[in-house]
Amino acid sequence: MLRVTRAADRYRGGDPAAGIDTRHAFSFAGFYDPDNVRFGPLTACNEERLAPGAGFPAHPHRDVEIVSWVLTGELTHEDEDGTTTVVRPGDLQRLTAGTGVRHVERNAGPEPLRFLQMWLIPTEPGGEPAYDVVRGLGDGVPYALPRTPAVLRVRRLRDGERAVVAGGRPGYLHVASGAVELTGVGPAVALTAGDAARLSGAGEPAARAAGDAELLVWDLSG
């Protein structure tokens, strides 16, 4: 019914010498666990930490939907035609790789950058690449991810506030900041920033904030 991944238990990757520190929740790059490859269409949830000036030079993707959420700092994205976009906390960035795309991601700002990047496998491969940025995504506003059954909601809770998560459907909850108590799926579980919970769809899971908290909640059932 519930599988919790603690922030401290994520696989450490990246390239520290280049100012890149990555925390993986699923099998990724040089880390492979056959029991931890994906959860529904969700196949990656990486926390990227980039020092000023650090980043990922032009690299390719295909047949994947990539959602980025900035925690602190500014993420600079450059696509194949040289168009540059700056993504800040509260903005949702989505890249549909389709038949193939190349892009650059870097920290062009003066402060350290932390962002989450989540990869989801589309229902059908192929299609034209696409790019989208939603500025200031509102609390609880659903973002339906194209070509997948997944819907993302950001929940911003004040101290003591409670919110139902996943609604009895398979879901994935990531604590972006703050702390919550997760109930409705057996004994209550305390989650803090960087922790994540995979919800099977059983029970009535709800999160109660201990102080202000921000949650990313995926409904993976459509």
Quickly describe the structure:
The protein is an all-beta fold and 222 residues long.
Alpha carbon gap, first and last residue: 19 Å
Approximate helicity band: under 10%
Kindly provide the radius of gyration, computed on alpha-carbon positions and rounded to a whole number of angstroms: 17 Å
Q: Care to count the β-strands?
A: 21
Structure description:
- The protein is mainly β.
- It is 0% helix and 51% strand.
- The chain is built from no helices and 21 strands.
- The strands form four sheets. Strands 2-3-4-11-6-9-12 form a seven-stranded antiparallel sheet, with no helix packed on it.
- It is globular and about 50 Å long.
Give a topology summary.
Elements: E1 2-5, E2 11-15, E3 20-24, E4 42-50, E5 55-61, E6 65-72, E7 75-78, E8 84-87, E9 92-96, E10 101-106, E11 113-120, E12 130-134, E13 143-144, E14 151-157, E15 162-164, E16 171-177, E17 179-183, E18 189-192, E19 196-199, E20 206-209, E21 213-219
List keywords for this structure.
single chain; 222 residues; mainly beta; six-stranded antiparallel β-sheet; 21 strands
